[in-house]
Specification:
Layout (H helix, E strand, L loop, with lengths): L3 E3 L6 H4 L8 E4 L6 E17 L23 H17 L2 H4 L5 E7 L2 H8 L9 E5 L9 E7 L3 E9 L3 E2 L7 E2 L4 E8 L2 E9 L7 H25 L5 E6 L7 H6 L14 E2 L2 H6 L5 E3 L2 E3 L2 E6 L11 E7 L20 E2 L2 E2 L9 E8 L11
Parallel strand pairs: 3-4, 11-12
Antiparallel strand pairs: 1-2, 2-3, 3-20, 4-6, 5-6, 7-10, 8-9, 10-11, 12-16, 13-16, 14-15, 17-20, 18-19
Helix pairs in contact: 2-4
Length: 371
């Protein structure tokens, strides 16, 4: 039996421009007239490429991102960056879901203030996002955070887990990096857990720095295992800029992520980004090669289409044309906000990534307009 999962006729993102809050999918059986409707929600992650305010924080190395610093980071540039970031966030996954993401994981942001300024942008104000953020000990002062639509998610608990790693040459010297953020709550009546990551960079070389990311993977696995201890069937999504590809040791050996649904066992992680990576797709480019450092992984209960609640439908990379460099040496790369020539007016050196979750809707559900 061949079935079709698609968008209803006469509805398009371009025509309603995110006015519909509830997306209805139609499931048609070839042998009957029975139709089922499905809610669809987007879960997204985006590296904001150094979203800093213009103030100098004496406790961090943010001097470059000040008006007097090397980047000449003025209020005008900051406000332009906020406008650009908010536009992207509002549109991730919206071509199908017809609404901004329900949950957004973020990294490379300086503090809570920049998140508040971001959510005050016209592209996002109508969606009543909440913020979960903790200050990390990263030397540059960059953090991770979670944004959530208050009409869809009610957080019940959040924690910031410190990653303790030390210099390979001097084991007494700590390397200060980002925490791992864990948020649990009710997603439209269903318990879910979200983990936001920004693992140590490849500074100094991939091989030389790999141990740091493996330590980050071990911490992430410990968090996931602790959630599974409390609930063996927990629905957990771990997302972030892992600074490693789906095929690297940190993901495959330490997180034990599987690239095939059928091979994903109980209390294991499925990585839908592995298949995208094998196709040559990426979220960032370096030296004419693509990497897929930005990933979203899910636990096995999300793969059960016959179970209760939301299940995984599809993963993607949001690479709209305006996010791509149109000309020059970096043509085809993500259109970043800063390059060697200074401020470009672009967006980020990473593309956002996302997954769609769907569940069967109430038979009486209909699209709901905001007006």
């Amino acid at each position: 039996m061949k079935c079709v999962l698609g968008r209803p006729e006469n509805t398009s993102y371009l025509s309603v421009k995110s006015l519909i809050l509830l997306m209805v999918f139609t499931y048609s059986s070839c042998f009957s007239q029975e139709k089922k409707t499905y809610n669809i929600r987007t879960i997204a992650f985006y590296n904001l490429e150094n979203l800093f305010d213009t103030e100098n924080d004496p406790l961090t190395f943010d001097d470059d991102r000040t008006p007097e610093g090397a980047d000449v980071w003025t209020l005008e540039k900051y406000e332009d960056k906020l406008k650009n970031m908010s536009k992207v966030l509002a549109e991730i996954g919206a071509e199908t879901a017809l609404a901004p993401p329900a949950i957004i994981g973020l990294c490379e942001l300086e503090n809570r203030k920049v998140l508040e300024d971001l959510l005050n942008q016209p592209s996002l104000t109508d969606y009543n996002y909440g913020i979960i953020h903790y200050d990390s000990p990263d030397r540059r002062g960059i953090d991770v955070a979670l944004l959530y639509r208050k009409d869809l998610f009610i957080p019940s608990n959040s924690n910031s887990h410190r990653l303790l790693i030390y210099d390979l040459k001097d084991p007494t010297k700590r390397v200060f990096t980002r925490d791992q953020l864990v948020v649990s709550g009710s997603f439209e009546g269903e318990t879910m857990h979200f983990i936001v990551n920004h693992w140590p960079s490849r500074s100094g070389g991939e091989a030389r720095s790999s141990k740091k990311r493996e330590k980050a993977a071990q911490l992430n696995k410990q968090i996931i295992d602790s959630l599974h201890y409390l609930d063996p069937y927990a629905k957990i999504l771990t997302m972030g800029d892992f600074n490693d590809d789906p095929s690297d040791r940190s993901i495959k050996k330490y997180l034990k992520a599987k690239g095939k649904k059928r091979k994903t066992g109980n209390q294991e992680l499925y990585n839908p980004m592995e298949d995208l990576n094998k196709k040559g797709l990426g979220s960032l480019a370096y030296r004419d090669g693509w990497n897929l450092f930005d990933q979203i992984l899910l636990t096995k209960p999300f793969l059960n289409k016959n179970g209760e609640g939301y299940f995984y439908y599809k993963a993607g990379i949001f690479n709209a044309n305006y996010l791509i460099t149109a000309r020059g040496q970096y043509r085809g790369y993500p259109f970043r906000s800063y390059d060697y020539g200074g401020y470009t007016g672009g967006y980020s050196d990473h593309f956002p990534v996302f997954v769609y979750l769907v569940r069967e809707a109430n038979p009486n559900s209909v699209p709901v307009n905001k007006n």
